[in-house]
Amino acid sequence: MATIGFDWPFSFIWLLVGGSFLLVSLFLHGRSLYKAAPKPEFFTLIGARLIFICLLIFLIARPFFERMKPDPSSIRMACLLDLSGSMHLRDRSDSFRRIDQARSHLDIDVADAWINGIGESYGLIQRYGFAGDELFALRQNSWSVPELGKSTALGDALLKLADEEHPVPLAGVVLFSDGRNNHGSVSPLDAGERFRELGIPINVIGVGQKGERGNVSIRFLDPPAQSKAKEDLFLVAEVANQFKKSQSICVRLFEDDRVLETLDITMGSEETRAIRFSPFTPEGQGKRNFRVLIDPLSGDEDPADDVDVRVIVVRPPDLFSVLYLSNQIRPLYPFLKRALGGDRFQVSAIVRLGEKTFHSRGGNLPSEGYPKDPDFWMQYDVVLLDLECLPELNATQVDSLNPYVRKRGGGLLFFGFPSGARELLGGVLPGTKFEDLRPKQSLSLEVLPDPLFTDRKRVDGWKTFLPGGTHSSLVSKKNPAALGVVGLKGNRDLSALVLQAYGSGKSAYWGSMQDWKRALADEDRAKEFIVFWQALVEWLGSGSVERARLPSLEKPIPRGKSMDLEIEILGADFEPSLDAMVEANVSGPDGYIRKLQLYPGSGRAGLYAGLFKPPFSGSYKITYDVRFPDGEKLREVGYIRVGESSRESIDLRYAERDLKMLASTSGGEFLSISDLTKDWIPRLSDSLPMVSRRDDLASSWPLALVLFLAGGMEWIWRRKGGLR
Asked: What is the pLDDT of residue 593?
């Protein structure tokens, strides 16, 4: 409230005497001026002189305004911020999260924030946050608290603030909240009544937007655990619309990051529908990540069920595609082609016939020379590779043989002279040392039934042999994980056939280049030859153990809860690896990106784990990059779903009506956060320590300017009229 007064330094009688003297002088001067000047000039000059005298008296009297205002040094104001899980929500897919909207006004590091502007007018301003059962001072790391999904105890937090003991009285509260209250023993309105009794208004800033909320979900409907390569895979998803009105929904089917199909559908209120996708034909075997998801919708309460992920194991096809590759004409080739001539095999071949002449059999093969594309192998289930071709292939193609076996799950059989092959191929070649033989007479071989011939009968009766007088290369030392299946009878340290599982696929080495002679020995040996090579190719074409294995996580992970990202790693010997470097690159909703280092766990050898706390609901892609000491690298991709599981997630609507009632009950003001400006002043208690502020009007520069102009104009008019 403002009052006006005069700071006249002398007695008020002197003011009357001086004023009377000036008025008498003005009267005498006016009478003489009336006789000497025309009437228009007379009134102008008398008016100017009167204004000048009034301003002079006003200046001498020294009037002032005195106003009372709260003492900033004797009051405090509290800003209370809701940090529960519902503040982590977006009201629309294109809007900021509720906590980010509040932060723009309460973060002291933001230059134009409201909290910085109000701090210049009031003394002590305290910032508090509340979540769950806690009321705490707001710090820089508090902005991430809503990620934990804690419940809201709005009434309890207000009472704790009211009961706080402090030497400086509380003048008012500014509450930033979305109005949700699902925890605690005190309702917000009861807390508002308590503040009204204390005479402390609660000013409420509503954080959120009104609008219809609901949920749209999608899940795979009875997905198969396995499928066959090169056969149609049929996938069905179930979409449920729990909104109270129809929704336009975009459904997408992915294989890892590749979009297989996109469907736009319109669903009625509370409708559930099965969506059948077009048949998809997997080309190669191995594990596949299939995802079905819905594009984000405004008002969707649970983004976690907007996506579903299933891992489907693609088994070897009934039809095995085989590529034979050699740099010379070997008699073995026509016999292999005949043995694999049934309905279950499709044989292609590239054979060098001369310096610039090649024989090609099958489609998608270059007509001149060897293929140049490093991904050329990926279209075949099995590759029969003559090792003497390696120097004629480019380095990129040779390097791609390893991922062909390890990642694609292909089968690779090496034959031919192995000199220098180990340096080029590394661990995908099962043998490390070889011994050349050229026996004068045929040598008997012993065949083990497992793993090639487990279902075959009378393997022990086979009369397999190394033809005499011909060159053979036998494996004298093999990889730790390799197995010799065919070896010299009486000397199993020398193996003619060595097998190994390698990553998702398999590889083998066959040392008898003249095995075709067995097919000519007699009818029984010819049958043995066919059974042997068909079983070998089928085994190679059916991928086996993976060196990087992920746990199955089909259920959603609770948001804000710590979890272990795990991966099981096998070394080149397919034993649990203890010396790998594992890095997990996580990408998720809202452009979330994080890199984690995984370390060996204490529970199981070969298991690597790292702690991860997902901050947002939705789908996360995790790329595991594995590096071994010898430079070898592996990569595995997995997906997890993160959802809301706390009490806070049951109802996330913006409760504007409850917030308005709280502000009205306590005597405060309600304001939507979209209307909050830097200059907004909250309502404060009426019973506050006050200080007076005095504004001296006589010392203001506009008064001196008007006084100068009045006197100057009167003088100019007098001289202009010829008066003194």
From this structure: 92
**Cis? peptide before 451, omega within 30° of 0:** yes
Neighbours of 595 (CB within 10 A): 10
- Helix segments in 238-351, DSSP class H: 332-339
Strand, helix or coil for residue 56 = helix
Least confident of 203-207, 444-448, 599-603: 599-603
**Cβ–Cβ < 8 Å for 509, 412:** no
**Tokens, residue 354:** 């001369």
CA distance to 48, 60, 698, 704, per residue, from 55 (Å): 11, 9, 10, 9
Find how far residue 157's CA is from the centre of its chain: 32
Q: Within 13 Å of residue 433, how many CA atoms lie on the same side as its CB?
A: 6
How many other C-beta atoms lie within 10 A of the C-beta of residue 679?
8
CB 488 within 8 A of CB 496: yes
* Greatest pairwise CA separation for the chain in angstroms: 159
* Residue 662 scores a pLDDT above 80: yes
Cα–Cα distance for residue pair 129/80, rounded to 1 Å: 6
Place of tokens 């309600």: 670
Identify which of 380, 381, 477, 375 has the alpha carbon closest to the alpha carbon of residue 422: 477
- For residue 652, what are its two tokens? 């996330």
The token pair at 164 is: 């706080």
Convert the pLDDT of each residue in 459-479 to its tens digit: 778 888 888 888 899 999 999
Q: Which residue has the tokens 């000497």?
A: 36
Instruction: Look at residue 73 in the predicted model and tell me its pLDDT.
Output: 65
| Helix residue spans in 355-438 (DSSP H) | 395-399, 401-406, 421-425
Distance CA 499, CA 508 (A): 4
- Is 327 exposed, middle or buried, given 0-12, 13-18 or 19+ CB atoms closer than 10 A? buried
Residue whose tokens read 């976690």: 304
Q: What does each C-alpha distance from 603 to 557, 600, 709 come to in angstroms?
A: 22, 9, 94
E-state strands within 539-660: 548-549, 557-558, 563-569, 581-588, 592-600, 607-612, 618-627, 633-643
Tell me the H-state helices in 132-187. Answer: 154-162
Strand, coil or helix: what is 539?
Answer: helix
CA distance 430 to 394: 22
* 237 Cβ contact partners less than 8 Å away, ≥ 6 residues apart: 218, 219, 220, 221, 251, 253, 274, 275, 277, 292, 308
List the Cα angle 46/47/51 in 5-degree steps.
115
Residue among 573, 447, 619 nearest 518 (CA) = 447
Contact 331, 516 (CB under 8 A): yes
3-state secondary structure of 170: strand
User: Any bridge partners for residue 409, and if so which?
Assistant: none
How far apart (Å, rounded) are the C-alpha atoms in residues 566 and 557?
14
CB-side exposure of 585: number of CA atoms within 13 Å? Answer: 8
Which DSSP symbol is given to 481? T
Asked if 544 contacts 411 with a C-beta cutoff of 8 angstroms, the reply is no
> Rounded to an integer, what distance in angstroms lies between the CA atom of residue 78 and that of residue 101?
19
User: What are 25-64's pLDDT values in tens digits?
Assistant: 766 666 666 665 665 666 666 666 677 667 666 666 666 6
What span, in angstroms and rounded, lies between the C-alpha atoms of 411 and 502?
9
361: nearest Cα among 377, 352, 348, 379: 348
For residues 283-287, average pLDDT? 74
Per the DSSP assignment, residues forming a β-bridge with 286 are 314
Q: Nearest-CA neighbor of 638 among 651, 623, 628?
A: 623
